[in-house]
Specification:
The chain has 250 residues and is of the alpha+beta class. It folds into 2 domains: 153 residues, Sandwich (Jelly Rolls); 71 residues, Winged helix-like DNA-binding domain superfamily/Winged helix DNA-binding domain (Arc Repressor Mutant, subunit A, Orthogonal Bundle), CATH 1.10.10. The protein has 9 helices and 12 strands. It has a 5-stranded antiparallel β-sheet. A 4-stranded antiparallel β-sheet has the order 3-8-5-6. A hairpin with a 5-residue loop joins strand 5 and strand 6. Helix 2 runs antiparallel to helix 4. The radius of gyration is 21 Å and the shape is elongated.
Length: 250
């Protein structure tokens, strides 16, 4: 296999330390508070090898073709996972938040394959890092750990399928209106670039810019630099629930 030979920032983070076993067990249990877990002997042995890593916001934690050698459970913060298309566009797959593991990391780890996508921290992130050999042993020996791993996988795959269906079957105006409403703050403003919005809805910056300008011409929004002001929330909500829209970019 032709793995890209880079040093993974998860391993060389600003803070990477061996915490006490009790601390790591506490972190582990805290992430599964909605479904009580039993720390069996195999899981306890796995956690003995774990490190706690903290990474600042805006750090690329993995790139396409990087080697995958740790199972990661995010305990604090948020990681954005995206595909970069042949045309250079970024397609958001999902976000990994506290209490979640990265499905690509898990599948690549299990299959001994390199990463096919990119992961970037959107906030400062703290995570438990478990070496592949310890992960493999716990997966084989612990029913509880195996259930957690496959539960995370099934939920994430369902999310990804839902996102693909939204991109494939939803009108772009509908997706754009929903995203504007989702990001709108109490002052009816969205602080985001056209590129950031395009990434969220699975489109390109150029296409999103055309649709935003069309919405502005119809008086629904006002465009500023890195800022969008919503002028007609009711009309935007009407577009958000439609399967088609009269506000088509020409």
């Amino acid at each position: 296999m032709n793995f890209r030979k880079t040093v993974n920032p998860w391993v060389t983070s600003i803070l990477s330390q061996m915490a006490d076993l009790d601390d790591k067990i506490q972190l582990w249990e805290a992430q599964h508070c909605t479904a009580p877990v039993t720390i069996d002997a195999a899981t306890r042995k796995m956690l003995l090898t774990a490190k706690v890593a903290t990474i600042p916001a805006g750090t690329a934690v993995f790139h396409p073709h990087d080697r995958c050698d740790h199972y990661l459970l995010v305990t604090e913060g948020k990681v954005k996972v995206s595909l970069i298309t042949a045309g250079g566009h970024e397609l958001l797959l999902y976000r990994v938040e506290a209490g979640e593991s990265c499905v690509l990391t898990t599948t690549c780890l299990m299959a001994s394959q390199p990463y096919p996508a990119e992961g970037v921290t959107e906030t400062a992130v703290t995570a438990l890092m478990i070496p592949k050999i310890a992960f493999d042993k716990a997966l084989a020996a612990s029913d509880g750990f195996r259930q957690i791993v496959f539960s995370h996988l099934s939920h994430r795959f369902a999310d990804i399928i839902g996102r693909i269906e939204a991109v494939k079957y939803s009108d772009l105006d509908t997706r754009l209106a929903n995203e504007l409403l989702r990001q709108m703050d109490n002052e009816q403003c969205i602080l985001a670039t056209h590129q950031a919005i395009a990434t969220e809805i699975g489109s390109s910056r150029e296409v999103v810019s055309r649709h935003l300008k069309q919405l502005e011409r119809h008086g629904l929004i006002h465009l500023g630099r890195g800022r969008i002001e919503v002028l007609d929330t009711a009309a935007l909500r009407a577009i958000a629930v439609e399967t088609g829209s009269c506000y088509k970019a020409s």
